[in-house]
User: Fold this.
Amino acid sequence: MTEKVPSKMQAKYDAVVKLTDTVCKKHLNEEYAALCRQMAAKLARKRPSPLESGRAGTWAAAITYAIGQVNFLFDKSQTPHMTSADLAEAFEVSQSTASSKAKTVRDLLNIHLMDPDWTLPSRIDDNLMAWMISVNGFIIDARHTPREVQEIAFAKGLIPYLPQEKDRGKS
Assistant:
């Protein structure tokens, strides 16, 4: 799938994605690569795009680092796992540069820990933030609500899929 980016930003996007794809293929997986492409495209579409200035390698490291933070990439108990130093080294940038630019990315895109929008698809079931909804002022897990409530939450984009449907391969 090709992400839509402004023609003015296409070359920079391509350079960033070439790097993220290479590192993800070698050290991570296709899910990480796909999220990196999506994030790079989102940054390329911002006006003005932060990708206009700086090296492609720095942005590629920052994007992968930010997605890694959301998905606990630096936690040894996770698979795949990389240290932040190893990730920065894979992009040939310093760890402090990758970390500080990743903060810039998180701030620009309003990304938080366990952000459902940037969670690996294989981990969305385990991400409580993807399932929390507010009903009459109470925060509850949508998976434990009646089907009608789940359908409303799904229609409004509040949950990633209808829980019963995923098991049947319908969502």
